């Protein structure tokens, strides 16, 4: 499979250039900063007022206001989520890979709300045209900070997906500091 979900870890370069479908920005925006924008993407697919592309390296830039984060794929996802969690004001869109280290380190303990999307998204190519295939896997919107969380909750809808509020942060106390989280009976 050659689409967005065709690799567990898509390669660097062109395969990172999957643009957010504009309806998502319309629904959850507006956003002030997109720290990982696609160089040369059409204006119709601009996700935020301020954008940084890979030449400017958004990880080293000063972010402002509400951030939109659809980060480059692969092992670097954790670095981007870590930066957004520390920044504390924004919404990220990533594959719902709940088994990964980055999900366990940067999402469950740090996020404020999650929206697990129903169905599969179709992202757009760098010229703005929707891809011919869907993304091949589930996605989740992750809100960091109370403003972003409120925005996610306000815009959520059961038809869109399952909303999970993490309060104050992290999963319910039953999972904190207890015994094994899974496989306990057989351990
Ligand atoms: C999945 S695309 C998302 C593009 C855009 N943010 C959107 O949501 O439509 C990720 C983009 O991050 C860009 N990128 C990769 N490394 C980057 C870096 N260090 N700083 C800024 N952008 C980067 C890639 O060129 C790619 O276009």
CATH class: Alpha Beta
At the fold tier of CATH, the topology name is: Rossmann fold
Strand content: 15-25%
Helix-and-strand structural type: alpha/beta
Question: Termini distance?
Answer: 37 Å
What is the gist of this entry?
The protein is of the alpha/beta class and 187 residues long.
Give an account of the 3D structure.
This protein is an alpha/beta fold. It has a single domain, classed as Rossmann fold. The chain is built from four helices and seven strands; from the N terminus they run αβββαβαββαβ. Strands 3-4-6-5-7 form a five-stranded mixed sheet. Strand 3, helix 2 and strand 4 form a beta-alpha-beta unit. Helix 2 packs parallel to helix 3. The N and C termini lie far apart (37 Å). The site of S-adenosylmethionine has 19 residues, from loops.
Chain-wise SSE layout:
Blueprint (H helix, E strand, L loop, with lengths): L21 H7 L4 E2 L15 E2 L15 E3 L7 H11 L2 E6 L5 H7 L5 E5 L21 E6 L1 H10 L5 E5 L22
Helix pairs in contact: 2-3
What are the main properties of this structure?
5-stranded mixed beta sheet, 19% helix, binds S-adenosylmethionine, Rossmann fold, globular, two-stranded parallel sheet, alpha/beta, 187 residues, disordered C terminus
């Amino acid at each position: 499979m050659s689409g967005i979900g065709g690799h567990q870890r898509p390669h660097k370069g062109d395969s990172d250039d999957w643009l957010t479908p504009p309806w998502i920005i319309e629904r959850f925006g507006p956003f002030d900063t997109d720290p990982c924008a696609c160089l040369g993407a059409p204006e119709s697919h601009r996700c935020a007022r301020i954008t940084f592309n890979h030449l400017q390296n958004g990880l080293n830039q000063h972010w402002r206001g509400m951030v939109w984060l659809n980060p480059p794929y692969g092992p670097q996802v954790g670095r981007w989520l870590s930066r957004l969690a520390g920044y504390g004001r924004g919404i990220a869109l990533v594959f719902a890979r709940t088994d990964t280290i980055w999900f366990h380190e940067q999402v469950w303990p740090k996020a404020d709300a999650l929206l697990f999307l129903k169905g599969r998204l179709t992202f757009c190519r760098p010229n703005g045209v929707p891809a011919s295939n869907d993304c091949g896997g589930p996605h989740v919107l992750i809100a960091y900070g109370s403003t972003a969380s409120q925005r996610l909750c306000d815009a959520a809808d059961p038809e869109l997906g399952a909303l999970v509020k993490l309060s104050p942060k992290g999963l319910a106390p039953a999972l904190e500091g207890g015994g094994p989280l899974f496989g306990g009976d057989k351990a």
